[in-house]
């Protein structure tokens, strides 16, 4: 209720202690819709703000080498590594969708695969240190063997047209 600079900007002579976000400022938040610990907060945010769903499949372009507006390199080091990451991401996410109770909300996005930079492109390290743990949480309470199925999908090699 104390007067502040916004009261003066708004011409409020009653000094209500206003606060506002200027039109040229955007507040961007991310929220995982499978995290039920913030469900009531999530509901409140969804009523008050504009939402845009970003699916894991929408993030694939992040993997490819590029340069941002500041001239900084983004994405993975090579197109070949990005292609391999994309293939593994798609295989894994297809396998996730085949598990009862899981859907697109549980898919693994490109941000996980960008961590390959930290491991010189080692997909084994990426699995062990980043992907395996989140999948174990997803599978809590599911029958054994599902994690093995997901790992097999992650590691699966593509077959050529002759099935080899």
Give a description of the structure.
The protein is flat and about 70 Å long. The chain contains six helices and two strands. The relative contact order is 0.10. A two-stranded antiparallel ribbon has the order 1-2. By secondary structure, the protein is mainly α.
List keywords for this structure.
2 strands; 164 residues; 2% strand; mainly alpha
Short description:
This protein has 164 residues and is mainly alpha-helical. It contains six helices and two strands.
Which outline best applies? flat
> Biggest sheet: strands side by side, in what order?
1-2
Write down the secondary-structure element order. HHEEHHHH
Radius of gyration, whole Å: 22 Å
Structural class: mainly alpha
Question: Span from first to last CA?
Answer: 73 Å
What does the average pLDDT come to?
Answer: 84
Total DSSP E strands: 2
Main beta-sheet strand count, sense and barrel state: 2 strands, antiparallel
% residues in beta strands: under 5%
Helix percentage: 25-40%
User: What count of helical segments does DSSP give?
Assistant: 6
Runs with pLDDT <50, length 5+?
A: none
